[in-house]
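Blinded run. Sample ID left blank on purpose so nobody reads anything into the name before looking at the predicted structure. Input follows.
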Amino acid sequence: MQFGLAVPTGTEGMMYPVPYADPDQAVELAVYAEQLGFDSVWGNDHISTQAYVRAEFEKPPRFYDPYLYLSFVAARTRTIRLATAITVMTFRHPVVVAKQAMTLDQLSGGRFSLGLGIGAYREETEAMWPGRRMHRGHYADEFMRSLDLLLTERRATFTGDYISFTDVESYPKAVQDPLPVLSGGNAAGSKERAGKYAHGWLPACLTPAEMAAGVADVRRSAEAVGRTLPADFDVAPQMSVAIASTEQGAAETFQSSQLYNHMRSLSESTLKGRQADWAERNLIGTPERVIDQVGRYAEAGVTTLSGLLFASNDVSHTRDQMQQFAETVIAVVNGKPAAPERAQVRAPEDLRD
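Blinded prediction complete.
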């Protein structure tokens, strides 16, 4: 099982309070994740503040561009994979995303994975496309088909209802062949696009049983178009983590966090119909219970627990939770030696050596 950390690119005010992490701290968390043995870091994508966050916080959150952030992290790490969870397709033209993704993969030595989705908050898309009715699923389908041309062909041309470009030669291509592209989201359209076009599926907060059913849906979608999913197809759900010595302590940690408020805000979109049984949809409990839950996800076909969000309201507590998780869960699940005592993460200026 692979384990990934959600880094605070577009989480302040949503999963975490305002303020949460300044730029140095945000990078520090990714460097620390590599030291602890996490396999990947995943950055979210937001361009404007959501209405419920504006109502709750007087000070605006700091949403960092995930590509610039991950490029900065790439220069200060050696092995950890870099990924978006997710890149919102309506925020960018596919020609631009192809250039950003291939450049980041080149600069990182082939460590980038591209998670794509329609986004949880329609209000952000409407802010960028004022006055225009858009079917985000249709746009996403055009986006993923046209992106594949840009990533693989020397010269790419595409004509659609929303997206069109002619004779684009985008180089250099990615180091990885193919560049991993994951379809993000729980909806039927997300699973269909995963089966038809992607190298992975990136849902959120599903139970092991729901994951198994979703994987079956993805396979059926692939079979319907005569496609066989690659052997390394990545099933990579994102979920929350609250770990403590008792079940009650873990539940209290989760319910007292801004992350819990964020989950409730998604009741009419990403997590519609999934507002109960939080412990069955996330990793909440004692280390023993969490290890058992990880095993159930593995049996359901999960290969990566991507973008784990720790139920913490400040960076210091996040680091403590990361270390405890690495020592009591990752080390046990993957049979690795327990992590050493917390290493001192070098300041960004020291990492330029």
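Unblinding after everyone has recorded impressions. The chain is about 40% helix and 15% strand.
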